[in-house]
Amino acid sequence: MGWEKAVAVSELPENSRKVVTLKGNKILLLHQQGEIYAVDNRCPHMKLPLKNGKVTAEGAIICPFHRSAFELSTGQVAHWTPWPPVVGNLMAMASQPKALPTYATKVEDGSIFVNL
Ligand code: FES
Fold it and tell me: Do you know which Pfam families this protein is assigned to (predicted)?
């Protein structure tokens, strides 16, 4: 674990997001409600990209594929593969819910750093 410089703060204004590659991992940075989050860009369900996932008012990101939802601050599963109807429930039964990896962030000298 160590702090990796990701982007300049100015590159991630409020309500924006950006995917960066750090130590070979695709990390999704989000600036939401005054907080900067860093999460794995791959959904733990089928490793598909989360980049275009909607963020709820409660601070969870919803995977655009089967709508699993994960808390941005902790990565905890809020919902596991509820979509599409019937098929989503079958997929949920066939797999164990897995948390989304999250990483600490800090702002220093005008840059965003991620601890990974
Ligand atoms: S790939 Fe994200 S919920 Fe299936």
Answer: Rieske
